[in-house]
């Protein structure tokens, strides 16, 4: 039985679904105002591993991920890009789904959009108002956290400093400053002009960010469901507010298991656009890293531990994948060999297979410890490489085990034409152009070209045999 660390209880608990054999998972999805950054994908790969492992264990999983297509950020960005809101959010939704596909993240069963659930949200707020949890002020509707006695249970946020009636109007707010939060926000003049509003009994409004996750998760998974995932930065206020709204509405427990992944840092720092240490998936692929390398790197740290992305670490991940690849190639070679009858190594093999399977599952059962599971796999490679009497039958059994593990890891380990790490085309073109300049002895221009190449993350060293390219 797998055990998961439940943020609600701060304990590892044996996982038991509400309905035998079935699991409902809700993952907070992207706000589609820009490309998602690589830290976001840590969350989605973690949820993917969770889902894959539950499926491996024989559960039928229903997975829902919302698309936030109306909020402060999307509205602001659409104005900057001079697009209408729908145009902007549809563009980035498409790009997001493409990125998930690139990373071999299994599709959710449904990606509900906030803008398509406005009626349900308004209806829920009416119920909250009737029950005394919601109040209107200047055309916006707020949730009164003082009325919900379990507020703060998930995040353990300090409620001492809260002034009664203090309101937070933004979709996002600073940590540890709880206050009444927006359920429905009065549309601004600008939003009214652009047609971004919904008519309700309180006037023209748009939904707050927290409300959509409560309404959409319960619509597709029921009033109480099994697992809710997200990054730790969502615990407060987002998930705290989801619990308050949902439980105030239904009077029932909202979610049994809350699973949160830690941050991804870049070069030891929190990612931020202003610091320039910010990568999208596409940035990393342009630098020549394969999706497998990126996925491998992201699962090689336990999800509840902070991970730190550096190019060096990606290169280490690349090497580990190469080792697996060489092993798989070897197995394929033997699986095609005209096999002898099972060698005496077979007994030894069966023992290794059994041990590996046990170690892998033990690691995954222990709160999805992927680094330990990967270690079990490398141990397996070591042991098998020691078997001298390899034959087709042994190779085939090893390939089967690798395929079984890969159904959880999602690295397409058995895919034979794995793309080797390549220098991107655009960089190759620049290098060619620079060579031409050098032949014409236009040193200054060649030097400028080198700087340009450096900006793409590569460094050229001129040697006697010609230019050598290194990743910075
Ligand atoms: Zn959410």
**% residues in beta strands:** 15-25%
What is the annotated CATH architecture of the largest domain? Answer: 3-Layer(aba) Sandwich
Low-confidence stretches: none
CATH topology of the largest domain: Rossmann fold
Mean pLDDT: 91
Report the span from N to C terminus.
45 Å
The CATH fourth-level homologous superfamily of the largest domain: HUPs
Ligands bound, unique = zinc ion
Secondary structure blueprint with pairings:
Layout: E1 3-6, E2 11-14, E3 22-27, H1 38-56, E4 60-65, H2 72-80, H3 85-102, H4 118-130, E5 134-137, E6 140-143, E7 167-168, E8 180-186, H5 189-193, E9 198-200, E10 203-207, H6 209-221, E11 225-231, H7 235-250, E12 255-261, E13 264-266, E14 269-270, H8 281-286, H9 291-299, E15 307-309, H10 311-336, H11 345-365, H12 370-386, H13 392-409, H14 425-439, H15 443-455, E16 458-463, E17 466-471
Parallel strand pairs: 3-4, 3-11, 7-8, 11-12, 13-15
Antiparallel strand pairs: 1-2, 5-6, 6-8, 8-10, 9-10, 13-14, 16-17
The protein binds zinc ion.
Residues 28, 213, 238 line the site of zinc ion.
Description:
This protein has helices at residues 38-56, 72-80, 85-102, 118-130, 189-193, 209-221, 235-250, 281-286, 291-299, 311-336, 345-365, 370-386, 392-409, 425-439, 443-455; strands at 3-6, 11-14, 22-27, 60-65, 134-137, 140-143, 167-168, 180-186, 198-200, 203-207, 225-231, 255-261, 264-266, 269-270, 307-309, 458-463, 466-471. The protein has 472 residues and is an alpha/beta fold. The protein folds into three domains: 19-261, HUPs (Rossmann fold); 281-409, Isoleucyl-tRNA Synthetase, Domain 1 (Orthogonal Bundle); 425-471. Helix 2 packs across helix 3 and helix 6 packs across helix 7 (235-250). The two termini are 45 Å apart. The structure holds zinc ion.
